[in-house]
Amino acid sequence: MASAQLRVAVVCSSNQNRSMEAHYLLSQKGFAVRSFGTGSHVRLLGPAPDKPNVYDYSTTYDAIYRDLRRKDPELYARNGVLRMLQRNRAIKLRPEQFASCQEPFDLILTCEERVYDQVVLELTAREQETMQLVHVVNVNIQDNYREAHLGAFLLCELCQCVSLLDDVDSDLAELLLEFEEHSGQPFLHTVCFY
């Protein structure tokens, strides 16, 4: 399966850091990719851990960027949020919520176990219409800039290997075991249907 034929979704909690870093890299490598969040709202670092900035998914990356520049440009430049938002607005207009997407994918990659559980729950709650199989794979990626960057390379390498498989449905489990050994990280994997 060629990279352009493999339909990939990358999902994190707010469609800001981890999923967008992977979205950027995968699109640069020619993959048909979309990215999503699973949270009820988009949450970004605020002035204190208990004071996040909260936005609806309908808020554009540009509007979030302008809002944070207005609130405290030094803080959000120093913690990297403005740089992250600049990247995001160059990729797509706004964050997207996974539950709102009805598009089928061949491979859904999640960036933390809680998000994996939410994606699997969402897919199994839907009425299965086409019985098209989708592989859902999780690798835990810490939600910081450095780990998101490294995680994006791991996810990209995984997608490149998946695109070379003759039979994804039969061979993916073995490939994931190889990736676990190579990366030292556990991968969760399940199959759902559309």
From TrEMBL:
It is found in: Nucleus. It comes from the Eukaryota. Its EC number is 3.1.3.16. One of its GO terms (cellular component) is nucleus. Gene3D superfamilies: 3.40.50.2300. Belongs to the SSU72 phosphatase family. Protein phosphatase that catalyzes the dephosphorylation of the C-terminal domain of RNA polymerase II. Plays a role in RNA processing and termination. This is RNA polymerase II subunit A C-terminal domain phosphatase SSU72. It comes from Myotis davidii (David's myotis).
